[in-house]
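Q: A reviewer asked whether we had any structural model of the full assembly, not just the individual parts. We don't, so I'm hoping you can provide one. Inputs are below.
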Amino acid sequence: MRQFLRVAWVVMRKDLTVEMRSREIVYTTVFFAASCVLVFAFALVREGRPLEDAAAGILWISVAFAGTLALGRTFERERHTETLRALMLAPSDRPAIYVGKLLGILALMAIVEAVLVPLVGLLFHAPVLARPLWLAALLAAGTLGFASVGTLFAAMLVRARSRDVLLPVLLYPITIPVIIAGVRGTAALFQATPDEPMARFWAALLLFFDVVFVTLSLWTFEPLMTES
Amino acid sequence: MARVFVPLVLAAMLLFAAAPLVVASAPVEQTMGLVQKIFYYHVPSAMLMFVSAFVCGISSAVFLFRRSAAADRVALAAGELVVLFGAIVLVTGPLWARKAWGVWWEWDARLTSSLLLWMIFLAYLLVRRFGGPGSEKLAGAMALFGMANVPFVYVSVNYWRTLHPKTSVVMTLAPGMRAAFWFCVAAFAAMYVLLLTLRKRLEDRQAEVEQLYLATDD
Amino acid sequence: MAVGFDFEQLVVDDVSRHFGRRRALNRVSLTCRAGSILGLLGPNGAGKSTLLAILSTLLAPTSGRVRYGEYDARSAGAQLRARLGLLGHDLYLYPELTARENLVFFARLYGLDHPHERVERALAHASLSDRGADQVSGFSRGMRQRLALERALLHGPRLLLLDEPFTGLDDASGHALLARLRGLRDEGAIIVVATHDLDLAEGLLDEVAVLREGRLLNVPPSPRSLRERYRETVAAAQAARDGGPR
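A: Here is a predicted structure for the entire assembly that you could use as a starting point for your response.
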C-alpha cells in the first residue's frame, strides 16, 4: 500500500513539475474555459442580457470542455516522448500510475475551476459565495467523476487513431450523469434561497458515481494498457 | 450449435411473421386507438436493447479480464444489436408519443436513458471502426462503463424530470392485450437470439479466415 | 526493490506474433546466457522491434514462450520488470525536466534505495555530472542517448534491450557506448542489441541473429567480417525464396 501511494505521488509530482516548467497547459486551458463561458454568455441571451439561470449549466459545460482538452493535451505530451511506455515498464503497480496521473489532472482542473467560478459569479450574478463549501464539494466530486473516467480513456487512446475526436465521443455519454448531478446541485445552490437538501442529494449521487467509476477504472487500467 | 441452428431459424421466422397477425387481432385500446399497437413492437425492442447492453457489457468484461477472443466476438454482435434495437425504440417511441402526448420527444427518465444508452453503444461501434489497432479493448472498456452507467443515468434523469408512463403500463394490460404482448416479446427475443448467433458466427468465420491466411505464410 | 528475482539465461522458445493478417514474427527461437551480447540484425520491418517488445514484456507473443531462467513473463510478474532495462528509439526522457530530475524520477519510480547517490553515479558514467541541472531539451542526441542509457541501467537490470542505440551518434559517442556495453557484459548482463550499424557492431557481438520477414535465418559461423556474413545470409534466403516452388 505504501509503495502504491509512493508511486502515485512520484508520478503526480513529476507531472506537476513538467507542467510548471512551461505552464503551457494551465494557461491555455484556463483561457479556453473562460472563452467557453463568454461564448455561452453571448449565445444564451434573453432581452439582450445573459440568461442568469444558465449559470450552473454554463459552469459545468465549461468544466467538461476544458477537462477534455486538458486530458488530451496531457496525454499527448506523454505520447510525444513515448514515456508512457517507460512508466508501464517500471515494476510498480500499474493502477498506481493511473492514480498519479489522475491526481495531476485534478490539480490542473482545480486551478481552472478556481478561475471559472468567480468568472461565472461575476458575469451571471450567481451567488457563488452563498454556500461555498457545498459548491466546492459538488465541484470536487463532479470533477473527480469526470476525470477518473477521462484519465482512463485518454491513457488508452494514446496509441489509437483518431484520438482527438474519440476522447469526447467516449467521455461525454458516460459522464452525463455527472453533468446532470453537478448542474442540478449547483442550480439548487444558486437559487434565491439555496436548497441545501437538494444539493446534498446530488452530492451524494456524485460521490456514489465516483466510488463506482474510480474502482472500475482501477480494475481495468492494467488489462487495458497491456497489449496481449 | 449447428443442430439447434435450423430449428432456431424456423422458430424465429415463424414467430416474427406471425407477430403482425397477433397484433392485429388484439383488442384496440380505447383512448389512443390504433396507434397504441406500436407498443407491441416498442416495448419488446426496448427490453431487448437493455438485455443486449448487458450481454455486451458482460462479454466485454470477460474479454478484458480473461483475454477471450470469442467473448469479444459476442460483444461485437451484442453491441450492434443494441444499436439496431435502440434505433427501433427511438423511431417507434416518438411515433407513438406524437399521438399519445402530442409531442415528438420529451426529456423524461426512460426516453433519455434509452437515448444515452444508444449513444454509448453507437460510440462503441465508432471506436471499433475508427480506433485503429487495439481498439477492441478500448471499446470493451466503453461497453463495461456504459453498462455500469445505466443505473446512474436512470436515477439522475428520473429526479431531473418525470413524464413517461411508469413501468406499471405492462401490468395493467387487458387480458387480450397481454397475450399479444407476450407473444411479441417471445418473437422479438427469438429474433434477437438468431441475429446474435448469426453475427457471432460471421465473426468466427472471419477469425478463421485470418488464421488460414496466416497459416499460408508458413 | 528487493533483489529477490534473478535469472542467468534468456530462452526464446518458438515465439510468433501476428497483428491481424501481418505476421511480425514467425517461430523464432534463440538462447542467451549471462555475460553475452546478442545482435539482432535485419532489414526494416524484419521484426526486430517486435521481438524486443516481447522480450521487455510490453507485448505478449501470440504463440510460444519467453523464459527468464525458469520463469516466464506471467509467472514472474512485476518483479521481472525490475530486472529488465529497455532503451528504445524514443529515449523515454522528459525534455522539460533536468537530467538529474529525470534520473531521480525513475529511481523513485523503481523504488531504489539511496536514489541520489545512484543518480550521481549514473551522471558520472554518462559524463554529464556538470550538466545535471540542465533541461534535457537542450541536450544533443549523443548526450540524451548517454543519459537514457544510464536511466535504463539505474536499477541494475540483468537483461538490457537496446533498439538501434547507435543511430545519430558521432564516432566518439558510438565508441563510448561500445565500451560501456562491453563493461556491462563483463559484469554478467545479458545484452540484446538491434542494430543496422554492422561496422560498429563488428567487435561487439558475441552472437548474431538475423531476422527477415519475421523469420530467423541461419548465419554461417565463418571468420569473415560481420558485414559479409550478413550479406551472405540474406542473399541465401532471397535465393531460396525465389528459386523454390511457387
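A: Points you may want to mention in the reply: Residues 2-225 of chain A form one domain. The helical segments of chain A are 2-22, 24-43, 55-80, 83-89, 94-124, 132-157, 163-190, 196-225.
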